[in-house]
Specification:
3 strands, mainly alpha, 8 helices, single chain, globular, 46% helix
Length: 186
């Protein structure tokens, strides 16, 4: 998400052009947290987890937190409760699912019948791009995904000492204190 638009597009285009694993058998049987009871929560958790190969509830929860930039932080057990219709789907969670699924929040609210109470967060182009990339990677091998990750990492540059956070997206820090990231572009 830290990369400028052009580099994000390049990674997604590469993912789109990689050979995908064929459908060799029917979809995996439902996991224990895919209740598939017809509830809005069950539908959203299934769309997030099963349709994007995020079979680990922890991976699904982390993806929600990262792509919503911390606006939606839930743990794996909360995803279980949302899926099982034991926890009401909160409007802010609906907006978080919308971001990660790449569906406009208003459309998702109309389909689920949940009132957003307030306008959804503004469009977030990096999150939208990552939602598209997540979908493009759903049938890639782990080696293909790792190659994409490494290519994205090579696009990062050393953040100059004293650079402001308004001008730079910081991604990671080496043990010597050096930050790597990408310049923010307006």
């Amino acid at each position: 998400m830290a990369l400028p638009q052009g580099e994000r597009n390049r990674i997604r285009e590469k993912a789109d052009n990689l050979p995908q694993l064929p459908h060799l058998r029917p979809a995996d049987p439902p996991r224990t947290y895919y209740c598939r009871d017809g509830s809005a929560g069950s539908m959203l958790v299934t769309m997030l987890s099963a349709n994007r190969n995020l079979h680990s509830p922890v991976a699904a929860a982390m993806t929600l937190a990262w792509l919503t930039r911390g606006r939606m932080y839930v743990d794996a057990s909360t995803l279980h409760s949302i899926s099982g219709n034991r926890t009401d789907l909160k409007p802010r969670w609906l907006a978080g699912f919308a971001t990660v699924l790449g569906i406009p929040a208003a459309d998702l609210a109309a389909v689920t019948g949940i009132d957003l109470h307030e306008p959804p967060p503004p469009d977030d182009p990096p999150a939208d791009d990552m939602a598209e990339l997540l979908w493009a990677c759903r049938r890639l091998t782990i080696n293909q995904i790792d190659d994409l990750r490494l290519e994205a990492k090579t696009m990062l540059v050393e953040v100059p000492a004293g650079a402001s956070d308004e001008d730079w997206n910081r991604v990671y820090r080496q043990s010597d204190g050096t930050w790597w990231g990408a310049p923010r572009r307006q």
